[in-house]
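Human: I'm a chemist; would you kindly supply sequence and structure tokens for a protein?

Assistant:
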Amino acid sequence: DTAWMVDHIAKIYEVESLARQRGIEGTAEHLAMRQAMSRPLMDAMKAWLDEKKTTARPKSAFGKAVSYMHKQWPRVTVFLDDPEVPPDNNHAERLLRRVALGRRTSLFVGDDDSGQRYAVNMSVVASCKLAGIDPAVYLTDVLLRLESHPASAIRDILPDRWRGPEAAR
């Protein structure tokens, strides 16, 4: 019974793999592929969930899983309408794992202000890694630029938009 669902999830990832192979990730062509191939799979999965919701015992592990998935459905299907959104949050989960590992370090920050600064620094480092940037290079460049950089253009030097030290010249 659940093997059917696992098979459909695997097919969603096959569509994503095909988009990656074609080099069209995040494009309108990728979105069209998702609409043509992934949407029917997701529609079938929703129908399956709707059926199981009526037959699964609500307090069983399976019933709880079906209920949870049913409630999360609008979030689960966001990727069908935006080619830049992955069908899962695996990347975010990997980043959060680093945060969890850093908790031991943060136990000894001393006070709330230090903890706040530590959290901001960890966020900057994680954002750099997410954008494929060496945090040390980013921080070295941005800290040197901050004094002369206009506050109204602060977004231009955030990790997802930063263009490197050569952009400052």
Notes: The chain has six helices and no strands. The first helix runs from residue 2 to 22. Helices lie at 2-22, 28-55, 61-76, 90-106, 112-130, 135-145.
